[in-house]
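Bug: token stream looks shifted between consecutive jobs. Job 1:
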Amino acid sequence: MTVPPAAGPAPRRAEPQSQLGPGAIEFERDRVPTMFPNPMFDQFLLLCFFALIAFAALSDIKSFRIPNRVSLALLALYPLHVMFSPVPVGWFMALSVASLVFMSGFTLFLCGMVGGGDVKLLAAVSLWAGSALVLPLLVIMGLTGGALAAGALLVQYARRYHASGIAGVIVPDASIAAPKLPYGVAIAAGGVYAGIQLLAA
């Protein structure tokens, strides 16, 4: 009589991998299952996110002001995103990251380096980005802001040349300042990247 071989240990089920891509910093301990996963409604919320940051960018271009209601609307929609997202959302770390961004931005605001509307918008967008996407958000924001600053310098030198010729370019003229920068555009650029990644998750 042949004795059947002893059954080995059951194979371990593969752990689901994150859809945010390799290299993303994630803290799974605060990723609780969503309460009401609804991909369609969550996509609608993300479209609202895109619309709000686009409105903020256009408002900053037009009047160099970002309405507080835009940042408040982003904050109000975020809990719905947490509840209806088809994938778990690390809301606790996202809240921590947004708080850190706000405190850092508020320090720059006190130093007169950034506007209050920029700080509030960036904190709200960082909340949506969370710990996994806040770094690329800041990188894209910085690159876009650098491009805006370079464009402003070109405009300033063009005005100096138009006013005084080549001497105006070589010798600084304090009466011709560089144009103001609508930094809400840079924040929106980073937010668009984060939103696209959330849509793809």
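Job 2, same session, no restart:
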Amino acid sequence: MFNYLTGKVISVNQNHLVLDVNNIGYDIEIPLSKNIIIDSIITIYTYFQIKETSLSIYGFNNIDDKDTFINLISVKGLGPKGALKILSSYTSNEIIDAINNQDIKFFSQIHSIGIKTAQQIIMDLEKKYKKKNANNNSLLKELKDSLKNLGCSEDEITSIIDNLDINCYLDIDDLLIDALKLIKKMDF
């Protein structure tokens, strides 16, 4: 329903914040709050959940965390509170790496996430993230080849890749366009 909200932080505690957007205060559940300052203007990417007895808004600093949250709550036996605990403890990339490495201990060391739930997380999400990683690897190879064909050195290619989030791209066209924009900004 809401993709994101931009507004002024009115209050913040460990797992909630109130965001004033056009004089409406939204109570948003968030992973453990880090670096959120009262009275600052922020954008929160949101997930809106409707249940029979409640409406809840979950908020995240970036789209990767929101996507990871959505994937985590799709796991059998893991609800929003458990997913928030995982995202409070680790970054999205660390979570994806743990899933790809089948690291049950990574998840089970989080309070209230048992071994069975950790196994379920890996079983339910492993194929989804391996497919994404395979796609990212092929995009990365295509980008490197394209930049090399354009005459970029290895150092320049590395610098460009370090400044792009490959996870955000679905095809080489958009990735290459942004890489070319970076080349222009970096003035190689």
